[in-house]
Amino acid sequence: MKDCCSNNEKSCCPSHSQHDECHSGKDKQEMFTDYFIEVADCAWGEVLKDKIKEHILATQNERMTELAKIVSEGNNQRWRAKMEKKKGCADFQEKLCSFFSHFKK
Fold first, then answer.
1. Residue 22 CA: distances (Å) to CA of 5, 18, 27, 48, 97
2. Residue 14 dihedral angles phi and psi, to the nearest 5°
3. What percent of the residues of the chain are helix, what percent strand, and what percent coil, each to the nearest 5?
4. Cα separation of 40 and 19, whole Å?
5. How many CA atoms within 13 Å lie on the side-chain side of 82?
6. Which of its termini does the chain have fewer beta carbons within 10 Å around, N or C?
């Protein structure tokens, strides 16, 4: 679902001082109607998402907690491995630099 006023006309809301330039083919009433319909669509989507979250938590809270733990721990392991790899690369680069710096002397 798109964000309210996220389309190309996002600066063209009723409070925008130059809204007539954005909607040259529309009259003001149609522009206001379109804007508020879009706001209502966004609000409807947000309420629906909230209700879905409530339902998931009411019916699957323990499983979601378990899933969150699995995902969190997996992500932590991934980042640890990534940082260890960077450290390993840095150690390798340092050894190479040290090796080649002896030849320069």
1. 13, 7, 11, 31, 60
2. -55, -25
3. 75, 0, 25
4. 20
5. 6
6. C
- The single residue listed with the structure tokens 């992500």 is 75
Q: Please report how many Cα atoms fall inside a 13 Å half-sphere around the Cα of residue 15, on the Cβ side.
A: 1
Task: Record the tokens describing residue 82, joined without a space.
Answer: 């990534």
- Is 1:45 a contact under the CB 8 Å cutoff? yes
Q: Which residue type is seen at 67? A: L
User: Residue 60 has what pLDDT?
Assistant: 97
pLDDT tens sequence for the chain (105 residues): 445 544 444 444 454 444 555 555 668 889 999 999 999 999 999 999 999 999 999 999 999 999 999 999 999 999 999 999 888 898 888 888 988 888 765
